[in-house]
Every structure is written in C-alpha cells, then in structure tokens.
Amino acid sequence: MTQSATLRARIDEDTKAQGDAVLNAIGLSVSDAVRLLYHRLIAEQAFPLELKVPNAATRAAMEEGHAILTARKARFESADELIASLDG
After folding, report:
1. Lower CB count within 10 Å: N or C terminus of the chain?
2. Angle of helix 13-26 relative to helix 30-44, nearest 10 degrees?
3. What percent of the chain has pLDDT over 90?
4. Burial letters for 16-51: b for 16+ Cβ neighbours within 10 Å, e otherwise?
5. Contact criterion met (CB below 8 Å) for 78 and 72
6. Is the pTM of this model over 0.70?
7. What is the DSSP-derived secondary structure letter of residue 77?
8. 56 near 65, Cβ under 8 Å?
9. What are the φ/ψ torsions at residue 86 (nearest 5 degrees)?
C-alpha cells in the first residue's frame, strides 16, 4: 500500500456544512470525494464529474441493498426464485 499524504484546504463554514450535507446524501465522505476527484483529474486530464443527490427511488434501492448486505440475506431463497420473479 502506498503512503498517505495529507491535503488541507480552507473553506468557509457555511459552504463546508452545505457541501458535507450533499456528500452525505450521496453517500461519500469528504475524503472519498477528494480521492475520486483526483483519480478522475488524472484519468481525464481535465476537471471532471457531475454527481447528484439520488432521487427517492434510488435512495430506497440503495438502502435496501445496504440492508441486504448487512443482514447477509437476499430477498430470494434460491436463484430459481430470483429468475421466476424477473419473469413475472
């Protein structure tokens, strides 16, 4: 694993609070967002990305997926049951 470097930035409190709220709604930490930004900067050689707060349906699906992973139990008892639900 490579060594970590610290990045510091000054930003006014109101902008930080609003930005933190948006990142939280997207499901990212500030560190995640900065890492993502840097990786995309490098890959695209330009300022990238357009992230948006997910809509209600997407948030519900994300929460359901997280609950399934946390419980380590899918909604289906077998692959056949999953396939049957897709046909119906």
Report:
1. N
2. 80
3. 55
4. eeeeeeebeeeebeeeebeeeeeeeeeeeeeeeeee
5. no
6. no
7. S
8. no
9. -75, -30
Q: What is the mean pLDDT of the chain?
A: 89
Q: Which two tokens stand for residue 34?
A: 């900065």
Tokens of 38: 């840097």
Q: Are 43 and 36 in contact (CB under 8 A)?
A: no
Residue labelled with tokens 């399934």:
68
Spell out the residues 6+ positions from residue 74 whose beta carbon is closer than 8 angstroms to its own.
68, 82
Q: What pLDDT band is residue 42 in, cutting at 50, 70 and 90?
A: very high
Residue 77 confidence (pLDDT) above 90: no
29 φψ region: left (φ > 0), alpha (ψ -120 to 50), beta (else): beta
| CA distances in angstroms from 12 to 15, 16, 26, 28, listed in the order given | 6, 6, 21, 20
